[in-house]
Amino acid sequence: MTKIIYIPLDERPCNYLFPNMIGEMSSQINIITPPKDILSKKKNPADIDKLWEWVFKNAQSSEYAILSLEMLLYGGLLPSRLHNYSIAELEKRVHKIKELKNYNKNIKIYLS
């Protein structure tokens, strides 16, 4: 079974629930998503550090990662438009993508 890490754009059902429902249609794939309580809640950003911890925890045994940059850099779609993060802080978060590839050299990463 192919294991896929999925970080949604935000917490809306079209982004959080529907991809999982599509994945459930196949016995060949297992899409895993982080707990909803660490995702964004409208204008309130996700707990980005916990999201990255979750990604790294699950990356070792995953073949693919489909990751929303809005979620992993800013904490969600709306927070990406309202943030006050410094360039240095955002660069650290971008660097985690490289770390992820070093953590699991075989994982295929798709960013949106």
Structure write-up:
By secondary structure, the protein is of the alpha/beta class. It is built from 6 helices and 4 strands; from the N terminus they run E-H-H-E-H-E-H-H-H-E. It has a 4-stranded parallel sheet. It is globular. The chain starts with a strand and ends with a strand.
Task: Name the features.
112 residues, 4-stranded parallel β-sheet, 6 helices, alpha/beta
Question: How are the secondary structure elements laid out?
Answer:
Elements: E1 2-7, H1 13-16, H2 18-23, E2 29-32, H3 48-59, E3 64-67, H4 69-74, H5 77-82, H6 87-103, E4 108-111
Parallel strand pairs: 1-2, 1-3, 3-4
Give the end-to-end Cα distance, rounded to a whole number of Å.
24 Å
Mean pLDDT: 91
Tell me what portion of residues adopts beta-strand conformation: 15-25%
Weakly predicted, low-confidence segments: none
Rg for CA atoms: 14 Å
The total count of strands amounts to 4
Q: What is the H/E order?
A: EHHEHEHHHE
What percent of the residues sit in helical stretches (DSSP H or I)? Answer: 40-55%
Instruction: Report the sheet with the most strands, covering strand number, pairing sense and barrel closure.
Output: 4 strands, parallel
How would you write the strand order of the largest sheet?
Answer: 2-1-3-4
The helix/strand class is: alpha/beta
- The coarse overall form would be globular
How many helical elements? 6
The total domain count is 1
